[in-house]
Amino acid sequence: QVLLVESGGGLVQAGGSLRLSCAVSGRTSRVYAMGWFRQSREKEREFVAAITWSAGNTYYANSDSVKGRFSISRDNAKNTVYLQMNSLQPEDTAVYYCAASNTGGTLVLPSIYSSWGQGTQVTVSS
Prior knowledge:
Blueprint: E1 2-7, E2 10-13, E3 18-26, E4 33-39, E5 46-52, E6 58-60, E7 70-75, E8 80-85, E9 94-101, E10 115-116, E11 120-125
Parallel strand pairs: 2-11
Antiparallel strand pairs: 1-3, 3-8, 4-5, 4-9, 5-6, 7-8, 9-10, 9-11
């Protein structure tokens, strides 16, 4: 198990940017991939992006909702994963969670992630 702590959320106007951070501590050597998910009041928790811990391969939600606007990265030296969010829109308003998977698999599925952060609120005003 690892401990995940998100930060960087807040209130931003439409068109603005935010960078979320997820600090990872504990048994990081067993982490295969890190993911970002989001959940709003109207929707179920949805996959946003993922990155493999070692190779740095990235994956994004297969929809126009985040493609081209969001970017996931990691700094292994700092044990931190980032989600850069640009051109934010009101529909991006949600609680954003980072998660860690030790096993890999279909990275869009919340079920493969065994550790979750507490979430950070992102609110985009129009």
